[in-house]
Design brief:
Keywords: Signal. InterPro entries: Bifun_inhib/LTP/seed_sf, Bifunc_inhib/LTP/seed_store. It comes from Hibiscus syriacus. This is Bifunctional inhibitor/plant lipid transfer protein/seed storage helical domain-containing protein. This protein is mainly alpha-helical and about 110 residues long. The protein has one domain. The protein is about 55% helix and about 5% strand. It has a two-stranded antiparallel sheet. Helix 1 packs across helix 6 and helix 2 runs antiparallel to helix 3.
């Protein structure tokens, strides 16, 4: 059960980070979105233990589409996400974080 909890927290953190990145707004199919999320989670697994993002993780954070992430962020998932940490990671990857950006159940400060 503890492993499932950590997996959920990893996914939540990565999703939060990716939704803040200002990714494209082009429509993606459900299958494309699922694949983008899978690739992102695999690329950024180290974030769960607060390791710095790898160059590949930063790349995935920059290219993941917001429209693939926002629908997945429920209030339950949002409760697991450290938004300040997510912002720090995004900025470390060279992206600006918009103020008061709403995605799913999260709004940035």
């Amino acid at each position: 059960m503890e492993g499932k909890r950590w997996c959920l927290i990893l996914i939540a953190s990565v999703l939060c980070i990716s939704m803040l990145n200002g990714g494209g707004v082009t429509a993606q199919s459900a299958a494309e979105c699922k694949e983008e999320r899978r690739i992102l989670v695999n690329a950024c697994k180290g974030l769960i233990t607060r390791k710095p993002p790898t160059p590949y993780c930063c790349e995935r954070l920059r290219v993941t589409h917001v429209n693939c992430v926002c629908p997945v962020i429920t209030p339950q998932l949002a409760a697991l996400i450290d938004v300040n940490y997510a912002i720090k990671v995004i900025q470390g990857c060279g992206r600006q974080v918009p103020r008061h950006f709403k995605c799913g159940s999260i709004t940035t400060p």
